[in-house]
Amino acid sequence: MDFSAENGWRERLMRWLVQILHGLYRCANYRHATAWDVTLEDLQQLPAASTGRALAAFLQQHGFALMPKFESHDLFHVLLGYGVTVVDEVRMQCCLAGSGRRTAPTLVVIAVGWMFYPEYGRDFWRHYQRGKGMVNFSGWDFKALLLEPMAVSQARIHNPCS
């Protein structure tokens, strides 16, 4: 998440909580997850219209690196079109929850986001409703989407009838 433009107490506290959550999630799920064994350079070599190439562009644009066993998180940003601010992260987690993702970190980010940013409550609800209109893609093999055209990957997520 991008905290550079957000230095208020809420953003600093959210940053601290996200670091705690990331550590807890990593401890709980690290041994069960499988790293993609893909580098940024590998992604950059994929076809221009591919989902993997879009992920590479996102990572470069924000100065991020792929985190082993957490690669799908950045792909969620790319596929769903969310930015990297604190509020964007809460919006994305609301969307993911709406689509059926009910992990502890997702629910904690949403709860804390609603507490710290009550003025965004309606906005968060709108993003939850957006997710309700999507397929539940939480169990997908996201690495397999890397070669797929970005438009096809997004259409599969946004079209519950596909």
Mind explaining what this structure looks like?
This protein has 162 residues and is mainly α. It has one domain (9-24, 38-158). Helices cover 59% and strands 0% of the residues. The chain contains 8 helices and no strands. Helix 1 (9-29) runs antiparallel to helix 6 (104-116), helix 3 crosses helix 4 and helix 5 packs parallel to helix 7. The longest helix is centred in the first third of the chain and has 21 residues, at 9-29. It is globular. The N and C termini lie far apart (31 Å). The model is unreliable at 1-5 (pLDDT under 50). It comes from Candidatus Thiothrix putei. This is Ubiquinone biosynthesis protein.
Highlighted features:
162 residues; mainly alpha; 59% helix
Task: Give the gist of this structure.
This protein has 162 residues and is mainly alpha-helical. The chain has helices spanning 9-29, 40-44, 51-62, 71-80, 86-98, 104-116, 121-132, 150-158. The protein has one domain.
Quaternary structure of the protein:
single chain
Which regions contain 5 or more consecutive residues with pLDDT less than 50?
Answer: 1-5
Helix/strand order, N-terminal first: HHHHHHHH
The whole-angstrom Rg is 16 Å
Distance between the termini: 31 Å
Q: Characterize the biggest β-sheet.
A: none
What is the fold's blueprint, element by element?
Elements: H1 9-29, H2 40-44, H3 51-62, H4 71-80, H5 86-98, H6 104-116, H7 121-132, H8 150-158
